[in-house]
Amino acid sequence: MNAGMTHRCLILRSRPVGAPRATDFDVVERTMPTVEDGCVLVRVLECSLDPAMRRWMDENSYGTPIPLGGELPCSLIGRVVQSRWADIGVGDFVTGRGTMSEFAVLRPDGYTRRIEAEGLPSMSCHLSVLGTSGLTAYNGLLKVGKPQAGETVLVSAASGSVGSVVGQIAKIAGCRAVGIAGGPEKCRVLTERYGFDAAIDRIGKDPDELALAVRAACPSGVDVYFDNVGGPCLEAALAAINAQARIVLCGMIGEYNAAPVGPRNLWQLVAKTATMHGFLNRHYLNDCAAELAQLRAWLSEGRLVSAEHVEEGLENFHPTFMRLFSGNHDGKLILRVAPDY
Ligand SMILES: NC(=O)c1ccc[n+]([C@@H]2O[C@H](COP(=O)([O-])OP(=O)(O)OC[C@H]3O[C@@H](n4cnc5c(N)ncnc54)[C@H](OP(=O)(O)O)[C@@H]3O)[C@@H](O)[C@H]2O)c1
Description:
Elements: E1 6-12, E2 25-31, E3 40-48, H1 52-56, E4 73-83, E5 93-99, E6 103-106, E7 113-115, H2 132-145, E8 152-155, H3 161-172, E9 176-181, H4 184-192, E10 198-201, H5 207-217, E11 222-227, H6 231-238, E12 241-249, H7 267-271, E13 275-278, H8 289-300, E14 308-312, H9 317-321, H10 323-326, E15 332-336
Parallel strand pairs: 8-9, 8-11, 9-10, 11-12, 12-13, 14-15
Antiparallel strand pairs: 1-2, 3-4, 3-6, 3-15, 4-5, 5-7
Helix pairs in contact: 2-3, 5-6
This protein binds NADP nicotinamide-adenine-dinucleotide phosphate.
């Protein structure tokens, strides 16, 4: 049916060394993918830009490295144009794991599901609060961090897609929520939009100054630290942990383009009999219906606020992706591929 048709795809041309350059990527015409039994072909509407994509560009990181010349994998929202999946029809909106391209095949891999925008601020919520970011925050905080009412939860990259949901769920759980973010405007957003109790501006602070700021913002110490950044933020949090604190290692974006800087005070884990737990949301995907229902309920009740930052066009992938590292975005970073729905 798609014989002879082509579509535009974003590919990895070369493996970035340090910060990715525009020349590491290309947009090329490729033959339309064929749809196997049990799968759907979608017109891609919006693609989620995630820091983990930077790791997949490396030869030896985690997961399957993107081959040179390969299309970039991503979470996306699409509209079905061809279906060989009994429960999903042409015209349905779906979310799932595909590639950054104009058309993509979605498989029954645990990620693909039908979606609709009814009762939601926008369809894009399925890539933010109701997508991997929201589930990562929910599972990482509640199942690994296990916060108790009255405890202090500290989170880095707090105004970002995952961090903003972590802080809001911490508040729902009856905790004091403290966020670390880059710049005064983001700190204002933390307290005014997302309801954090306190915000710490990381910009211009060396690790010792950051540690002092964490202690000042967390006078009762830190019970749960949700780490999205690593390096100086992790060290500053360790300096303020309480006995039996739980540190959730969700990501280390500060190291994705640069040499790692290890914390100098890991001894704190011993002294405070604390735990540090690496976490990958993909291990919690077997049955996420209840978690999604809870996130959706909080969203409809106004107890969760979502924010999406949408840029347009596959050819704008590089400058848009780099916003994750400069911090120049407000909420979930999304690249719109089709001009309209
Ligand atoms: N474990 C999992 O399953 C899983 C799933 C999803 C995401 N993650 C991880 O969660 C983290 C956040 O992802 P996200 O999608 O929500 O991104 P995001 O927070 O929306 O955007 C990234 C933010 O990181 C901060 N940042 C970037 N470079 C930094 C640096 N060198 N030092 C300190 N802060 C820096 C910036 O915020 P400020 O400028 O405000 O500091 C930037 O806005 C990432 O580490 C990601 O890998 C993990």
